[in-house]
Specification:
Oligomer: single chain
Distance between the termini: 19 Å
Structural class: mainly alpha
Largest sheet: 3 strands, antiparallel
């Protein structure tokens, strides 16, 4: 029975990638840079030792590191066959060491953010900012929401078949956007306390993870944005940016010391900025863009529900704003998923 094609313009998700991060020595993959199977040079070559970097335009290819085959066909064709055994061994050892460091940092950070998440939801401790009493409910919910954005960004990187570059990008934009705005609200690193300390921790760890990530070369690869994803994102980015500016102004002015002294206004400004970055990432549609889509949608939905339940608490969106947040969070996921299909075959 022939496959039925889905109606409308839908976006097809890519197939899963191979799981061997340290496969070295194929003719198509040299040092993480993809090359064509044959390269033309403009002068005769008599021996592989005559090969120079400027001949092939690729720094990684040399007569010492790679095994090459030269075949004269009019102009000389140089075909990269693979790395020498010594170079293969060196690259394999380097890759394995990098992967050990990657997992050693990513796994504990995932566990740490998970513990933070449940702490702010379930426990009545100073860290939980009086979840069962006082006027900090929205702030506790916001901290848990920030953790909920970071957890899947980290956890999906631990398993090669779920690893997509959008997860790493989500970690970076959430941490760096939040750090930048919290620094403005707290007037720099003079007091390295909450939430500047938290955002600094996430940012530094995120940058290190990015530097040793198996797909670090794809970090800045452009996505495939569309008008409808940009439009959906714009509906949330503008009010969230305005909300972040308002909360940062409260922190700078020191209004309501019970919140200002513990950095809660700065937390809300940083979280809103993090969501702005993640929603913008959704609009760019880089590989794995459904992760930031769901993360931003569910985070906005949670904050909206909390604001509806507690419309008069500090930093609440209010009844109207909470309703708008719930509608946007649900609609953004529903619309995007209705236009996305899984690959027919892999």
């Amino acid at each position: 029975m022939p496959a039925v094609r889905p109606r409308g313009r839908r976006l097809q998700e890519p197939c899963a990638r191979p799981v061997d991060e340290c496969q070295i020595g194929s003719s198509a993959d040299l040092g993480g840079v993809t090359h064509p199977s044959s390269l033309l040079v403009d002068r005769p070559l008599e021996q592989p030792a005559d090969i120079r970097h400027d001949d092939v335009g690729v720094r990684q290819v040399s007569d010492e590191a790679a095994l090459v085959e030269v075949r004269p066909i009019g102009a000389v064709t140089l075909r990269v066959v693979g790395w020498s055994q010594g170079e293969k061994w060196r690259r394999a050892v380097t890759c394995r060491a990098r992967m050990v460091a990657f997992y050693t940092l990513t796994a504990p950070l995932t566990l740490f953010t998970t513990v933070e998440f449940f702490t702010h939801l379930l426990l009545n401790t100073p860290v939980a900012t009086q979840w069962t009493g006082g006027s900090h409910h929205i702030h506790a919910l916001a901290h848990a929401t920030l953790n909920a954005v970071l957890i899947p960004a980290l956890a999906t990187q631990l398993y090669p078949r779920t690893r997509r570059i959008a997860g790493l990008q989500q970690l970076l934009v959430a941490a760096l956007f939040g750090l930048a705005v919290s620094l403005i609200a707290k007037r720099g690193f003079a007091d390295l306390d909450f939430p500047v300390f938290n955002f600094t921790l996430y940012s530094v760890a995120g940058l290190i993870i990015a530097a040793i990530h198996p797909s670090r070369g794809e970090l800045l690869r452009p996505g495939k944005p569309t008008a409808w994803t940009a439009g959906i994102a714009l509906l949330a980015v503008v009010p969230l940016a305005a909300y972040a500016a308002t909360e940062a102004a409260k922190q700078i002015s020191g209004i309501d010391p019970v919140h200002a002294e513990v950095g809660h206004w700065a937390l809300m400004a940083g979280l809103a900025s993090s969501l702005v970055g993640v929603i913008g990432l959704t609009a760019l549609r880089t590989e794995g863009w459904r992760l930031p889509l769901w993360s931003a949608g569910l985070a906005t939905l949670a904050l909206g529900i909390g604001s509806i339940a507690m419309p008069t608490e500090a930093s609440s969106f209010g009844l109207l704003g909470g309703t708008a947040a719930v509608l946007w969070g649900a609609a953004s996921i529903a619309i995007s998923e209705s236009r996305t299909v899984a690959p027919i075959s892999c």
